[in-house]
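Cross-check.
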Amino acid sequence: MPPPQKIRLQKADKTLILHYPDAEFELPAEYLRVYSPSAEVRGHGAGEGNLVAGKLHVGIERVAAAGRYALQIFFDDGHDSGIYTWAYLRELCETREQKWQAYLERLENAGQGRDPDESPVKLIG
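Predicted model, tokenized:
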């Protein structure tokens, strides 16, 4: 998978913009953080990986090339161990809506939320 032709970090908007010959994609920092390819997020075996909650306000400090095959993203919460291959970034672009909905459902099912300052409460009865 070829790399994007251009990568723009918009710190104020907390987004990463990827320009490809056939499309342009805008990926929010929160989305990239909760779908980090790191072992911390993906886990060490098969399955859905570890659910990452409370990242609504996360931003991106900087990005750097990881060889010629990937991008390393440095988040402002200190997370920087995920190496996003060009193929995985394109997958995140093309499946953003489905992945985001799946993430929101996992959060709800786990009784967790996106905002670290809020504690979701389920009312019984």
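The domain at 6-110 is CATH 3.30.2020.30 (NE0471 N-terminal domain-like). The two ends are 52 Å apart (CA to CA). Passed to J.P. for a second look.
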